Amino acid sequence: MSDAILCRFEAARSIVRDAADLAMSMRPASGGPTGTQKSAQDWLTEADGAVEALISTRIGALFPQDGFQGEEEGRTRTGRLRWVVDPIDGTSNFARGRNRWCVSLGLLEDDLPVAGIIQAPALNETYTAVRGRGAFLNGRPIHASPVDDTRSAMIEMGWSNRVPAGVFEDKVATMLRLGAMPRSGGSGALALADVACGRLDGYLEMVINIWDVAAALVILDEAGARTSPFVRDGGLERGITILAAAPRIADDLAAALDVPLA
């Protein structure tokens, strides 16, 4: 990986730490929820805008030639290198003072995810990866699960109000028929990170956006997980399906859930 990417990655680690500290300082007390409800189970808090603005400003000052895209403001700058941020992934958890949320920042070179940082400050966890250099949790190497039987698997599925009625239930029923244990934790980025480090054996979400997965895609690749072809199938421009899985059950899981793998 080029020196330019590594330089950006090191700068981004510091920026994400500051952004996570800001988010923690703005986290509501337990209870709630606190914030604005955009649609069913889709929340927006003051911290979402503040964290995104901090990251955008700092990235823009250091690398003005780079593109930038955020969940809240959209694509505000263009460039061959593009930063993509989800300022608070898991906002429904954050809005209730829960711990399972994160700041997610990914870097793309053209259409290729090349670096990613996912920081979950309430959990004291930071996932990082640069393409070709491995994936890490708090500085220690991580790898996808060695599970080779779906009857031993733990699979998470994300919920979205953009999915037709019945689809969530049907996919969870398929997981149960495989003998897997379903879960749902409220943060797509952290669920994908859990697949990368082996805490989960798979994650499925039927409609998810690039800001939710930009950092996770390179972390998953570097950890040896398998994923559906998110970028190839149009995920840079619209919300689409993602499946990430431990390599030894990936084919069986993809076939049962009717999701192609890359």
From TrEMBL:
Record-linked Pfam families: Inositol_P
Name of the protein: Inositol monophosphatase
Binding site residues for Mg(2+): E71, D86, I88, D89, D212
Molecular-function GO terms, alphabetical: inositol monophosphate 1-phosphatase activity; metal ion binding
Family annotation (InterPro entries): Inositol_monoP_metal-BS, Inositol_monophosphatase-like, Inositol_monophosphatase_CS
Keywords for this protein: Hydrolase, Magnesium, Metal-binding
Any one of the GO BP annotations: phosphatidylinositol phosphate biosynthetic process
Species of origin: Gluconacetobacter johannae
PANTHER family: INOSITOL MONOPHOSPHATASE, INOSITOL-1-MONOPHOSPHATASE-RELATED
PROSITE patterns xref list: IMP_1, IMP_2
Family: Belongs to the inositol monophosphatase superfamily.
Top-level division of the source organism's lineage: Bacteria
CC cofactor: Mg(2+)
